[in-house]
Amino acid sequence: MHRVRVLIVLLLALTSFNYKPTQYIDRQGQVSFFSYTTAEHIAANNNQVLSIIDISKNEIAISMLMKAFVFKKSLMRTHFNESYLESDLYPKATFKGQIVDFDASIIGHQTRMVKGTLTIKDVAKAFEIKTDIQNTNGKYLITGDFEIAVSDFNIKIPSIVAPNIAKVITTKFRFEYKPHEE
Amino acid sequence: MKNNNYLLIHLSLLLGCMVSAGAQDLLETLDKEYPTTPQYTSSTFKGTRISIGQSVENRKAGVLQLMALHRSWNLPNAGAQRFVADKWSSRLGFEYAITDRWTTGGGWTTLDDVYDGYLKYNLMRQYQGGWKQPVSVTLFQNISYKGNLRLPDGVSAFDERSAFTSQLLIARKFTPALSLQISPTVISRNQSALAEDPSLHFALGFGARYKLGGHVSLVSEYYYVANPLVSRTTFGAFALGVNWDVRFLLLQFQMTNTRRMVADGFILQTPNNFNTRDGNFVFGINAVFALHLKKN
Questions:
Q1: Looking at beta carbons, which residues of chain A come within 8 Å of B62?
Q2: Taking the CB of residue B190, how many other CB atoms lie within 10 A of it?
């Protein structure tokens, strides 16, 4: 009798391992940003961005280390972390949101809005970002771009370099999700 | 039977845990995905010099720094009213980062026609947070050659004109704003003609940086010499300054008591204490411009 009960519980435990994955993760996501001014073009790229989606709740989360952004000129990275983003105090930037009307079962492309909160330097701001989602055999590819106003995130730029740094930074992202093994 | 019941309780607990694990916040899930390898600290100091002396910092590979250092001071009782500009000395120099850890540099100083060359090697880098690898350590080796030294007839040996300075630079970034450095130093020189002066000197440097804002920091340095020159009175070099940097330019302003810009010079040959009397007060500016010869 007891053995049967044990067996039932064991089976229950096993089936919970077997259900279809609802979480998909990318550990090497790419985020890059561009600052275009007549004086100078600045570009930086981070290819160690973490992102996860939960297709049962249509949720998305992104987390990245600011120190992982690489610039063409090494001193720019130093200043980015030391003078502007203060990465020792605020090491991460995060995004958390919902993919509106996302249907995970559609194979191929779908264009969806992502509504959520971007947090940089402890300042949270609501964003709505148009994204392209591609489903290929249980893998999801999400790409898109949006614009960030530097002044929204408590980033101070001295007037002497104001001509070299754009007020609005173009940001691009690319995530390739695979099932998240617990 | 009792054992079986315990097993049941355990299993149901396990099941419960798994269900709740699925319900946790996605950002918390991501936090656990970060690699656990330790991160190095960056920018213990912003410049390769704290103010007058070397810091643990090196530039990244392929960066060439052009440096113009300038010191000016008054002549005591000169009778004129020139604001800390009776006399001056300048050093023109360069620094090139061969790799992220190796830097080489050199320069020429107007005062005493001093040529100098050096190597810097970053031995160890501090890990962020905790005390696992608590400090950054850089080795500094300098050679200086005094061109205008008057030597007795027949003596013009390289040995008599040169001085060798070895430093172990040890620094820790305690907080994002505060970094401290301690620098045990050995100087070997035969420039003094007097036998009473030691040819090997031991010194200890102290340096500090406090960040006032994104681009401005307050810096100070002091060098203690355990066995100074005997033939004349010397004082420990001291500097209090402000560093300001933007883009590829770093400006270092300092109030100091030393007129010299090469390690053996300012550590051993500072003939006056730090005060505002004419001749003692020295005002200095270092202008450092970085060129990226190699881009990522």
A1: 74
A2: 15
Structure token pair of residue B86: 């009776």
From the candidates A76, A78, A150, A164, which should be mutated to test the interface with B, based on the most B CB atoms within 10 A? A78
B60 contacts in A (CB within 8 Å)?
Answer: 74-75
Report the C-alpha gap between B216 and B213 in whole angstroms.
5
pLDDT tens, position by position, B141-162: 999 999 888 777 766 678 788 9
The reply to whether B17 touches chain A by the CB within 8 Å rule is no
What number of other Cβ atoms are within 10 A of residue B70's Cβ? 16
* DSSP code per residue over B180-196: EEEEEEEEEE-----TT
| Distance in angstroms (rounded) separating the CA atoms of residues B168 and B55 | 10
**pLDDT of B34-47, one tens digit each?**
988 888 999 999 99
Alpha-helical segments (H) within B23-99: 26-31
Decide which of 3.30.70.20, 3.10.50.30, 3.60.15.10, 2.40.160.40 is the CATH code for B63-292: 2.40.160.40
Would you call A25 and B15 a contact, using CB atoms and an 8 Å cutoff?
no
Q: Who among A5, A50, A158 is closest to B8 (CB)?
A: A5
Q: What ipTM, to 2 d.p.?
A: 0.84
Ranges of each domain in chain B = 63-292
